[in-house]
Design a protein that fits this description.
Chain B: This is Ribosome production factor 1. The complex is a heterodimer of chains A (293) and B (336). With 293 residues, chain A is mostly helical. Chain A is 59% helix and 9% strand. Chain A has a domain at 4-127: Enolase-like, domain 1 (2-Layer Sandwich), CATH 3.30.390. In chain A, α2 runs antiparallel to α3, α8 (220-240) packs across α11 (274-285) and α10 (262-272) packs antiparallel against α11 (274-285). The relative contact order of chain A is 0.05. The chains are: A mainly alpha (293), B alpha/beta (336).
């Protein structure tokens, strides 16, 4: 008992390792402290008779320190397990701290109350669904993002989707919705071609095959371009054969009437006269002043 | 020698070009400058040197290309076959579980899984879409769009129910699939798909979500019809990939309305599943025009479980969460 004041005068004035100074208050970091503040009445070092309530794994314990044991630091704190029900625990505190100063008793009970409240809360939360916080590993995240970008580039989605759709069209999953007579038409024509190729010479056969392979372009511009290119090559051929002028004029009128299925009609013409039709095609669509004469 | 090999094996990958003496000298010089670069402390100078080095390399490469092209033209038919560039897809590590279409056993296994009833057209999928608690605006928009994409889907708010309980009540109300969109930092970042009568559950990580209103074309919302879309599943090669693709396909009605010309695509590339939603139009036999509608997002499979959602006691068919070091052994190894 005599030491208490001496201890306090030293701790208070000069240095205490458990003391934490903030702007408004002084806190005590000692684990046995009852209130958590640094006061004369609450300091466990400066009071040889002291009591606290502490919680361990959901169990509350009452710790008591008396003068008689102040010489034996090992056995200084007496640990008593309190009941799990709040009422019984309070009565236990009253029983153990019966002749103790009122401050200590009051504070112990308050502390017990607070502890039991937060234990209840913890139990409730544990039963609910907890959001699991998964830390983002920065490197992994960066790597995944970069790989995703590269995969996107490698995927070439538009062309892949287009290809798949066209394949489905070919396979016939769409049935009769799309009227591309080209399909059946082309097939029939190809069969005809093969038959004709066998009968005629190689040159014309080659031309026909090329014709068959030409993609159908409904877009006029591209058709024109292609045919212009061809016309440049084949102009020479045309000059030799004069009698074709009449037929050429006929086919021209045909083409003017039919717009969207231009290529189709052209093909019709070619099928009737395989050998010479090619030349007609090119001449009529290209804008060559010679022809007007 | 090279051309002979090429002639034998048409799919030969790029081989280093035959070098002359001067070429070799230049290469040595380049190598030395490259080594020297690492010792230069001045970043500006170092970057400048690197740029010049790159330029030289590119020049050499272009010249090589030109040469090869010329040679190929000169030789005409006898030219060696075109070299195929090495890509990650060509050099992918061969997976044991790659599905071989011809193997009857495998196809039998695949077709007789939990989705057999879907693919035999016995039921129409009914989807329940929900989110995590307190979703923010982006997630809400995303969920609304998903309800437009999946035909016969309904959106309900979470109201703090657990997934297991949700699944129970959904089973009672005859839903066939449950989709839960998880949110993090105000943005959707995870999707849990669970097939209901004891079906598999999969969790995907969502990234790069782009909503319809952020698309390039304006007023695209008006192009959304209620026709049932057709589903395109690209590039799912392994058994796991097949399982995932069947799962995603079963969210849609088995009978698409082709007149609507809507196509929904799940394209797998290097384990990233890209989702796109298009309206298509066949311009001709060989051309199709696509117009992108709807959201686009990327999925990455995190785990696949046998039964319905049960992270603690469930039977995981595939999981990558804690096993990265075991699984990601090489850059050329993919699982889907």
């Amino acid at each position: 008992m005599e030491n208490d004041d001496i201890v306090w005068s030293i701790i208070n004035k000069s240095f205490c390792s458990y003391k934490v100074n903030t702007k408004t208050q002084r806190f005590c970091r000692n684990e046995y402290n009852l209130t958590g503040l640094c006061n004369r009445s609450a300091c466990p070092l400066a009071n040889s008779q002291y009591a606290t309530v502490r919680e361990e794994d959901g169990n509350c314990f009452l710790y008591m320190k008396t003068v008689e044991r102040s010489g034996f630091p090992r056995n200084m704190w007496e640990k008593v397990k309190l009941s799990k029900s709040l009422e019984k625990a309070l009565r236990q505190i009253n029983e153990y701290l019966v002749y103790w100063p009122g401050f200590t008793r009051q504070k112990c009970k308050q502390r017990l109350l607070k502890i039991s409240q937060y234990l209840i809360r913890m139990r409730k939360l544990r039963l609910r669904r907890q959001k699991k916080l998964v830390p983002i590993q920065r490197k992994q995240d960066r790597r995944e993002r970069r790989r995703e970008e590269k995969a996107l580039v490698a995927a070439r989605l538009d062309s892949a989707i287009e290809k798949e759709l066209l394949e489905r069209l070919k396979r016939g999953t769409y049935g009769d919705i799309y009227n591309f007579p080209q399909v059946a038409f082309n097939k029939a024509l190809e069969e005809e071609e093969d038959a004709e190729v066998n009968m005629e010479g190689d040159d014309y056969g080659e031309d026909e095959e090329n014709e068959g392979e030409e993609p159908d372009e409904d877009i006029d511009e591209e058709l024109e371009k292609e045919l212009e290119e061809e016309s440049e090559n084949e102009e020479i051929e045309y000059v030799e054969a004069d009698s074709d002028l009449e037929r050429e004029l006929e086919s021209e009128s045909d083409l003017e009437d039919i717009e969207p299925k231009a290529s189709n009609s052209v093909k019709d013409n070619t099928r009737r006269k395989p050998r010479l039709e090619i030349e007609y095609e090119t001449e009529t669509l290209s804008k060559n002043p010679k022809r007007t004469v | 020698m090279e051309s002979a090999e090429n002639a034998e094996n048409a799919e030969v990958l790029v081989k280093p070009p035959t070098l002359t003496a001067s070429d070799r000298l230049a290469a040595k010089k380049r190598f030395r400058t490259q080594r020297r670069l690492s010792t230069m402390k001045n970043k500006v100078l170092r970057n400048a040197q690197w740029a010049t080095l790159k330029k030289e390399k590119r020049k050499v490469k272009k010249e090589g290309q030109k040469q090869r092209k010329k040679e190929a033209e000169a030789l005409g038919d006898k030219a060696p076959p075109k070299q195929i560039p090495r890509t990650i897809e060509n050099t992918r590590e061969a997976d044991i579980t790659t599905v071989d279409r011809d193997d009857e056993e495998v196809t039998f296994d695949i077709t007789h899984d939990e989705y057999e009833s879907y693919f035999s057209k016995t039921y129409v999928p009914k989807i329940l879409i929900t989110s995590s608690d307190n979703p923010h605006s982006k997630t809400i928009h995303f969920i609304r769009e998903l309800t437009k994409i999946f035909p016969s889907s309904e959106c309900q708010w979470r109201k703090r129910s657990s997934v297991k309980k949700m699944i129970q009540s959904a089973k009672e109300k005859d839903y066939t699939d449950v989709v839960v969109i998880n949110e993090d930092r105000r943005v959707p970042n995870g999707m849990l798909v669970s097939h209901l009568p004891d079906g598999p559950t999969a969790y995907f990580k969502i990234s790069n979500v782009k909503l319809t209103k952020d698309m390039k074309y304006k007023n695209i919302i008006k192009e959304f019809t209620t026709h049932r879309p057709e589903v395109i599943l690209n590039n799912f090669q392994t058994r796991l990939g097949q399982a995932v693709s069947r799962m995603l396909a079963s969210l849609f009605h088995y009978d698409p309305q082709f007149k609507g010309r809507r196509a929904v695509t799940f394209h797998n590339q290097r384990d990233y599943i890209f989702f796109r939603h298009h309206r298509y139009e066949f311009k001709s036999q060989k051309r199709a025009a696509l117009r992108e509608l709807g959201p686009r997002f990327t999925l990455r499979l995190k785990w696949l479980q046998k039964g319905t959602f049960d992270t603690i006691e469930g039977d995981y068919e595939w999981i990558i969460a804690g096993k990265r070091h075991e699984m990601e052994t090489s850059r050329r190894r993919f699982f889907l």
